[in-house]
Design goal:
447 residues, alpha/beta, TIM Barrel, eight-stranded parallel β-sheet, six-stranded mixed β-sheet, 16 helices, 16 strands, 19% strand, globular, binds zinc ion
Length: 447
């Protein structure tokens, strides 16, 4: 490979390339290693994937909820100095199968130490009564925006907090960990950045920068110390329950877009909706089962169409690009509507996940100059597994899960990303799946 003034001008055999090189060309011997273009991964969670704030991880294959107790009990015993016992890894349908209320399983372990366990998907939290007490949640609490406080037949919280209802708990638990920011830093420097380098990834978008946990400052510290080995664009998290005016002014003050820095704080990450498996992604039609007995059963909105529109109006002129989590077809539709209403159409915004898209919306991505960002590395996006959620939404919609072919056919600008560590980081897994996942596959060149 011959490079002149930073541009590749020839590729060929050693002799071919040497013949075209000037006499004083610098020769770099790769010693049989490969050089390849840097990969841009536009949706992943490097800081969260690497941060070590959980005290325990449950067996993800467990089918009896009572069997979760021993690992949690052990964490309580082994961490007497931890203010909160925070862990990860339950399956929500395993908890739904419990013969008693989920809160009782945790209260049997402790009623004096707050316990919080994050679901495998991160879209719900399982807590004991002490955790609820510290968070100020009781039988009189209303569901927060974008969240559900599940209750038993007597109207008492049953220990499962869906989507945004659980986020408050996690914020409390993490704030109680004295070295949580150092944990984030250590994980980023010692684990995440080397993993990115190993996988050929040179630019990333952090898809959920929790500014209330100072994630942006941790990234800044890594950049200031000269340890940032990727170009990083941070997607500041938009808190659904925050006052809009206050949040807009805080986010404005965090904007940075220095051409000489590897770190840019120039994106907003927000959730339009939740996820299919918890019946919280926003759908056009009702779910086939009703888990929550709410007035509507077509999913929930973290941030409604009108608020997305309002935030775009306020923050796009500053230079922020929007990165919007949309899984259900109603969520996709509403986010496109908000962009149509408020954006200047310069093509900087993207919808991510896009698992279900109304056929009438396929062409709107190119019309509105919006990027469709899809992840197809995870097993759950493979055709063999599409129909696992038929019991929730029927089989017809699951014939076109993550419809990358339909989107490309409608001239959408499509990106593939990893969503690490929800799915594998290695970008070639997603590229391979994109080519092979017929009928929603694309060509090798497109991938
Ligand atoms: Zn993600």
């Amino acid at each position: 490979m011959l490079i002149r003034n930073g541009i590749i001008i020839a590729i060929g055999t050693t002799t071919d390339v040497e013949n075209q090189a000037s006499e004083n060309a610098e020769i770099i011997d790769l010693e049989n290693k490969m050089v390849m273009p840097g990969i841009h991964d536009v949706h992943l969670h490097p800081l969260e994937a690497a941060s070590d704030n959980f005290l325990f991880v449950l067996n993800t294959e467990e089918t009896n909820p009572e069997n979760y107790a021993s690992d949690i009990e052990q964490a309580v015993t082994q961490n007497p100095n931890s203010e909160w016992i925070l862990g990860w890894g339950f399956d929500i349908y395993t908890l739904f199968d419990a013969t008693r209320e989920p809160i009782e399983i945790l209260d049997d372990i402790s009623t004096t130490k707050p316990i919080a366990v994050m679901e495998q998907t991160s879209h719900s939290i399982w807590v004991n009564s002490k955790a609820l007490e510290l968070a100020g949640i009781d039988e009189n609490s209303e569901n927060p925006i974008g969240g559900i406080i599940m209750k038993d037949d007597n109207g008492m919280p049953n220990g499962i907090l869906i989507d945004n209802a659980g986020n408050l708990i996690i914020d409390l638990a993490i704030a109680s960990i004295p070295n949580n920011e150092q944990n984030d830093y250590d994980g980023l420097v010692n684990f995440a950045l080397p993993e990115l380098a190993k996988n050929g990834i040179t630019s990333v978008c952090d898809a959920r920068t929790y500014w209330k946990r100072n994630h942006h400052q941790t990234w800044q510290r890594v950049e200031d110390e000269g340890k940032l080995t990727v170009r990083a664009n941070l997607g500041l998290w938009l808190y659904p329950t925050e006052n809009d005016a206050t949040q807009i002014s805080t986010i404005q003050s965090l904007y940075s877009n220095d051409a000489n820095s590897f770190l840019k704080i120039n994106q907003i990450k927000l959730y339009a909706d939740g996820i299919i498996i918890n019946t919280t992604s926003a759908m056009e039609d009702d779910y086939l089962i009703d888990l929550f007995n709410l007035p509507t059963n077509n999913g929930l909105n973290y941030v409604s169409q009108s608020r997305i529109s309002q935030y775009i109006s306020a923050l796009e002129p500053i230079g922020f690009d929007f990165h919007i989590h949309t899984i259900g077809n109603r969520g996709v539709n509403e986010a496109l509507n908000a962009i149509e209403q408020s954006s200047n159409g310069n093509g900087r915004h993207r919808l991510t996940h896009v698992e279900y898209v109304l056929p009438s919306d396929y062409s709107r991505f190119s019309q509105l100059n919006v990027t469709a960002d899809a992840q197809v590395a995870g097993d759950f996006t493979q055709p063999a597994n599409w129909h696992e959620t038929d019991f929730l939404i029927g089989s017809a919609l699951n014939n076109a899960n993550v419809p990358i072919k339909n989107l490309v056919d409608a001239n959408a600008r499509l990106t593939l990303s990893s969503d690490w560590d929800v799915s594998e980081l290695n970008p070639f897994i997603g590229m391979q799946n994109a080519v092979t996942r017929a009928p929603q596959n694309i060509s090798l060149n497109e991938a």
